[in-house]
Amino acid sequence: MDVHLDPxxxxxxxxxxxxxxxxxxxxxxxxxxxxxxxxxRLEPHRAGKKVEDFFCPRCDRRTQLKAKRGRLYNRVSNSxxxxxxxxxxxxxxxxxxxMEFDPEEWMVERLRVVPGHFLxxxxxxxxxxxxxxxxxxxxxxxxxxxxxxxxxxxxLLVRDREAVHAKEVRDQFRRTSFLREFGAEARGWLSDxxxxxxxxxxxxxxxxxxxxxxxYEEELxxxxxxxxxxxxxxxxxxxxxxxxxxxEFLGDGHYRLR
Length: 258
Ligand SMILES: [Zn+2]
Prior knowledge:
The protein has helices at residues 16-31, 81-89, 166-175, 184-200, 210-214, 217-223, 230-243; strands at residues 43-47, 50-55, 62-69, 75-80, 95-102, 107-114, 124-126, 141-145, 155-159, 162-163, 207-209, 247-251, 254-257. The chain is of the alpha+beta class. Helix 4 (184-200) packs across helix 7.
């Protein structure tokens, strides 16, 4: 994977957003590979002249590319809210490739893929409707909240302008792909729980207690405002992680991360 973008493609565009789109899409067509299978490339899916998204010719997964000049922050504005939530509930959310590039030197600084199974309602925020004077008045967009997606669900393909080895990328992808077997609600809880375990700062082999996880009850309630039984949910999801061999039950509210 070559981290250099081709700025010559931008020359005919005075609009920066358009230039970004054309340059980064061309790069993805050349350099992106599938993190989920051995395919060495992704193909653009075009609607008219515009690239809608990319798909893997081998396993058919879809990837949305979101590229930004400079750094991405926690909130990334994204498409219409309702269709996105419907896609999440129907387990049809695509993978997202978040690219940050240096527009002076035209180099990819960082590229992260968030597998679609980490897209949950917890990480999508509803935006305010566009005001009445706007061209699409009343339209409701969404934000993706990157800070709510656990590191396990943000797979680095490029880190500090250096490509990560594809094997490492695919191993990381495989580690969490069991989430795909779960429905949207369970995926949401599992992903949030992984996020909490990361927040506690656990590494492989570390022990933790149920009490520590309960310490995040308020945060979890915020992410699941309709659920009044956060503690029961937490215990249930810990069992799922145990059944998947990701954690070990030591008894008496004590656990170990595998
Ligand atoms: Zn594939």
